[in-house]
Design a protein that fits this description.
The structure is a homodimer.
Chain A: E1 2-6, H1 11-27, E2 31-35, H2 38-46, H3 52-55, H4 57-74, H5 89-97, H6 104-116, H7 125-134, H8 139-146, H9 149-164, E3 172-175, E4 178-181, H10 186-193
Parallel strand pairs in A: 1-2
Antiparallel strand pairs in A: 1-3, 3-4
Helix pairs in contact in A: 1-6, 5-8, 5-9, 6-7, 7-8
């Protein structure tokens, strides 16, 4: 079993999210999607209210170049979003509401593509509704559940759990008791999960 | 040609520094060692006076675990130093003074091992002298040059240049006009250097 922790606003989470389900499938591993919000972690750990990539422009400038190169390497489309980070809370709540739905993985991948390849505003309810419909979900039902107290509490609980379990960024993988941070560790995490 | 930018206090620089000369040799690439100091960059870019790994304990705790795993992966010895980050300025000045010496690469690798595998204080002049001797250098001569105004200015110039060219951490590689950050990008950097 492998837990994949991500935030829809995170650029490197985009790349890893496109890859992780296929990698788990090939390795015969159960995948558990774990949406959470980076914002509260960055505020608690770094005292900042923005992405570390915006706080340090040198690091941010490099990140966009690097993400573009990595997308090319993995054959993924990429277009730098005009807004970064985007508001990811609504999409994260939909993902929480959809954890048991057949379209959950497709929704996650489509939402990341909307953010990092299609120039869409994933903070807008109409866009999120479109994305749900595009992967075969019932947008009205899923959005209603996303706005419920139960689902809001679920996302807060995942975010709290992320902090308690030592996460400090996304994507992160937890498998067999070990934490792996970053798209760059996805292959190592799969190897560890399968006993490597 | 490939420039390898590093700070002797940087844990991931340790791993990359052990690998880079062999990788360049195999690829037929000229390697240029570029010692610099991370401290002034972190202060200018982040307003901090310590390693980001100490400023954020969650990230620091993960880093040590990850460095240990990566050392195992690359067959490198590792022992977590009791002091982090170590004072790297003297060793960096020696590296500047030794750029044209045959023992430069050996000194760099030995000094990183002293820090990250042998529990030695690389801020101590006696230790640095021992390291120079151990790789066939003249410790008295090299240390005298390391304390000269010319060499001090050279290290300041490399550090200023690092900031001007967009570096924000170590190790970093610059080759064919592109910046690659991190031990995790060393193979990509070599591929780019050789036209890949």
């Amino acid at each position: 079993m492998l837990e994949f922790w991500f935030d829809f606003a995170s650029s490197y989470s985009y790349i890893a999210a496109q890859r992780v389900e296929a990698l788990c499938g090939r390795a015969g591993l159960e995948l558990r999607w774990r949406p959470f919000l980076l914002g509260p972690l960055f505020t608690a750990q770094l005292g900042i209210k923005d992405s570390p990539f915006n706080v340090n422009p040198a690091r941010g400038q490099y990140m966009w170049k690097d993400v573009e190169r990595q997308c090319r390497k993995y054959g993924l489309p990429f277009a730098r979003p005009s807004l970064f980070p985007q508001r990811s809370v609504l999409a994260a709540r939909v993902a929480c509401a959809a954890l048991e739905s057949a379209w959950c993985g497709d929704f996650i991948r489509a939402t990341f593509r909307a953010n990092f390849a299609e120039g869409r505003d994933i903070g807008a309810e109409a866009v999120v509704g479109d994305l749900i419909t595009s992967v075969g979900g019932d947008a009205g039902d899923a959005l209603a559940r996303a706005h419920s107290d139960t689902v809001k509490a679920q996302l807060r609980q995942f975010t709290d759990e992320a902090g308690r379990r030592g996460l400090f960024g996304a994507p992160s993988v937890i498998t067999r008791g070990e934490l792996f941070f970053g798209q760059d560790r996805l292959d190592d995490a799969i190897a560890h999960a399968t006993g490597g």
